[in-house]
Amino acid sequence: MKQRRRFNVTADLTYTSSTIETKESASTLSASTSSTFSALELGADYFFHPKFAVTAQMLFTLTASTDSEIKGFDVGVRYYPKNSGFQSEVELLGSKIETTPGWAGYLYGGFSSRDFQFGNTSISFLGPEAGGGVDYHFAQHVFLRGGLNYQFLRNTTSRTYNGFVGSLGLGYSF
After folding, report:
1. How far apart are CA 138 and CA 144, in angstroms?
2. Rounded distance, CA 8 to CA 94, Å?
3. Which of 5, 82, 117, 131 has its CA 20 to 30 A from that of 54?
4. Domain with residues 2-173, CATH architecture
5. In this predicted model, what pLDDT tens digit does every residue of 27-58 receive, in sequence order?
6. How confident is the model at residue 2 (pLDDT cuts 50, 70, 90)?
7. Model's pTM, two decimal places?
8. Cα 5–168–63 angle (5° rounding)?
9. Nearest-CA neighbor of 67 among 20, 120, 128, 130?
10. How far is CA 59 from CA 23, 72, 74, 139, in A?
């Protein structure tokens, strides 16, 4: 079987529901802030194996309060247990058959960073994230992607950032 394409580029709209907590000591929680925001995430995937892709995304805030900004960068690996959704060429009894699977489910694991700018105050977080999703290939090079990740981010002080990130986007394979 010959893999036909190895790269994806994507643009996703994301919705995040998260909590930032500040702990004064191991047993005392001093503040908790819940937030929701929408963002645009631009990404690229490289398939180094038919079932594995290394991926990187850059996040830009679309909605937040007027004096705040949220940016971030994610890097990780997607694992496609059944197929990657790419068109493939299979040789059978001397004939070549091209296949285009429609649905391709994946599992994701990686690292994420988020930088929050609130007026003159900046807070940065870094940590692992895990999740999964599905790609639906509805044309030869074009697909829809939907996913849900959970982020477990920390910073150098006693703050934590935990949240669910849902995304829906459009991708192009080449």
Report:
1. 8
2. 30
3. 117
4. Beta Barrel (2.40)
5. 665 666 767 778 899 999 999 988 899 999 99
6. very low
7. 0.82
8. 130
9. 120
10. 27, 5, 8, 26
